[in-house]
Amino acid sequence: GKLDNDRELDNIKLNDKEVEIYGSRDDLQSINEVTAEVDLDGVSESTEKTVKFDLPDNVTKVNPKETKAYINVK
């Protein structure tokens, strides 16, 4: 999503900087990061949202399942 035209994204920080992922050892060795998509539709001021992680292929589980995203707009 997008912010309103008169708003600009300052930054987004996630509450969890690290997560634990589960899967086969071979599949996990090539994974360096896990992403979380933050929907900015309807965001007009600094706020927080709960977001889920986008799991790479062959990852069977992530802990925690979701995190808080702190969204700062200016």
Short description:
With 74 residues, this protein is mainly β. It has 1 helix and 6 strands; from the N terminus they run E-E-H-E-E-E-E.
Describe this structure as you would to a colleague:
This protein is mainly beta. 7% of the residues lie in helices and 41% in strands. The protein has one helix at 25-29; strands spanning 9-14, 20-22, 35-36, 47-54, 61-63, 66-73. The strands form two sheets. It has a four-stranded antiparallel β-sheet with strand order 1-6-4-3, with no helix packed on it. It has a two-stranded antiparallel ribbon with strand order 2-5. The longest helix is centred in the middle third of the chain and has 5 residues, at 25-29.
Which characteristics define this entry?
mainly beta; 74 residues; two-stranded antiparallel ribbon
Write the layout of secondary structure elements.
Layout: E1 9-14, E2 20-22, H1 25-29, E3 35-36, E4 47-54, E5 61-63, E6 66-73
Antiparallel strand pairs: 1-6, 2-5, 3-4, 4-6
Mean pLDDT: 92
How large is the count of helical segments?
1
Order of helices and strands: EEHEEEE
**Fraction of residues in β-strands:** 35-45%
Approximate shape: elongated
Distance between the termini: 17 Å
Outline the biggest β-sheet. 4 strands, antiparallel
In total, how many beta strands? Answer: 6
Low-pLDDT runs: none
Structural class: mainly beta
Strand order of the largest sheet: 1-6-4-3
Helix content: under 10%
Radius of gyration: 15 Å
